Amino acid sequence: MRPLFRTACRFVLGAVALAGTLQGAVAQESYPQRPVTWLVPFAVGGPTDAIARTVAQRVSAELSQPIIVDNPAGAGGTVGALRAARSKADGYTLFVGHIGTMAAAPYLFKGLKYDPMKDFVPIFRFPDTPMVLLVKNGARFKTVNDLLQEARKRPGELTFGTAGVGSSSHLAAEHLAATAKVKFTFVPYKGTGPAMTDLVGGQIDAMLDQTNVSLPQIQGGRLTALALTSQSPMPQFPGVPTLADTDLPGFLASTWYGLYAPAGTAPVVIETMRVAYMKALADNAFTDALRKQGIDVLPNDRVGPAPLREFTVSEQKKWERVIREANIAVQP
Ligand code: ASP
C-alpha cells in the first residue's frame, strides 16, 4: 500500500475511533438526561415493588434524575417482562426481572413471547430476599407440621396465595409441596401484596412471601411466621425456625432480582446504572436499612452484569430441572 494512502487510512481510522469515544463520552455525560422508568412486573405493595422503589430511590439520588416505577403486572410477571422486552432500547425503560420472569418462565410457558437471554442485557443484581411461610394470626396452624399434616389429610384443599404461575411465591410453594409430598390449591393474584390482604382476611390459608413485606405484618400482629426458607434463623424473626432445620431438611428458597435493559441498549447506560448502584451499596445507611428488612446484601463481586448473566443462566438450568422433577404444570 502506497505510504500516502496508508497515512490517509490511519487518519480516517483514528478519526472514527475518536468520534466513537467522544460519542460515548457525550452519552456518558448526558445519560440520563430525563427521568428513567423501571418496569416492575408485580402489583404495588408487594415485595418486588417495595425493593424496587427502595433501590430506585437511592440510585436516583446518585444520578440526580427521577426513576419512575411502573407496575405492568399479571401472568406471574411475564406481562411486564414482555412489555419491557419490546420497549425502546434507549436507556429510559429498564426492567426489574426476577427468578420467575428471567429463569423459570421459559420452562413454564410454552408460548412465552420473549427470551430472557436474547431480549435483555443484565445491568446489576439486587440483594436477595429470603421467604417466610405465613398464616393468618390466630389460625389453626401453630407449626409447619400442623399445616403439612392437614395438607396430607385433605390433599389439594389448603389454599396458597401466589403472584401467579412462575412467581417466586408460586415456585417456592410448588417446591415446598413437592418436597413435603403434599398438594395445595394455588390462588393467583397480580402480586403478593393483594394476596397478603386476603391472607390477613382469612380468604386463603397460607402463603410464602418475602421477608421485607412480611416483617411489618408479623410485627403488626396480622400474620404469623411458621418458618423461614433461609439457611439459618434470622434475628429479625425471633423464635422462627427454618424449614431446612425442621420439617424439610435442606429446603431453601429465596427471591432474586436483577435490573435488565432491552437488548441493544448502549453500554454507557449499563455502566452508568451499575456505577450508581455500586455507590449506593457503599452507603452503609442504605445497606443497613435493607438488612433490617431481612434482605441479603450480596458481595460486590456478584452484583455486576457478567455475574448476573452467569447467575441467570445457572438459574434457568436449575428451574428447568425443578419444574420437570416437581412436575409443575406447564402453561400453554
Ligand atoms: N415477587 C413476588 C413473587 O414473585 C410477587 C410480588 O412482588 O408481588 O411472588
In short:
The protein is 45% helix and 17% strand. With 332 residues, the protein is of the alpha/beta class. Bound molecules: aspartic acid.
How would you summarize the topology of this molecule?
Blueprint: H1 3-30, E1 36-39, H2 47-63, E2 67-70, H3 78-85, E3 93-98, H4 99-108, E4 120-125, E5 129-136, H5 144-153, E6 159-162, H6 168-180, E7 185-188, H7 192-201, E8 206-210, H8 211-219, E9 223-228, E10 254-255, E11 257-262, H9 267-281, H10 284-292, H11 305-325
Parallel strand pairs: 1-2, 1-3, 6-7, 6-8
Antiparallel strand pairs: 3-11, 4-11, 5-8, 5-9, 5-10
Helix pairs in contact: 2-9, 4-11
Bound molecules: aspartic acid.
Q: Report the CATH topology name of the largest domain.
A: D-Maltodextrin-Binding Protein, domain 2
Give the total of beta strands.
11
Named CATH architecture of the largest domain: 3-Layer(aba) Sandwich
Radius of gyration: 22 Å
The total tally of domains equals: 2
Please trace the helix and strand order, writing H or E for each element.
HEHEHEHEEHEHEHEHEEEHHH
Helix content: 40-55%
CATH level 1 class label of the largest domain? Alpha Beta
Proportion of β residues? 15-25%
CA-based shape: elongated
**Can you tell me the CATH superfamily of the largest domain?**
Bordetella uptake gene, domain 1
| Distance N to C terminus | 61 Å
Q: Output the structural class.
A: alpha/beta
Report the major sheet: 6 strands, mixed
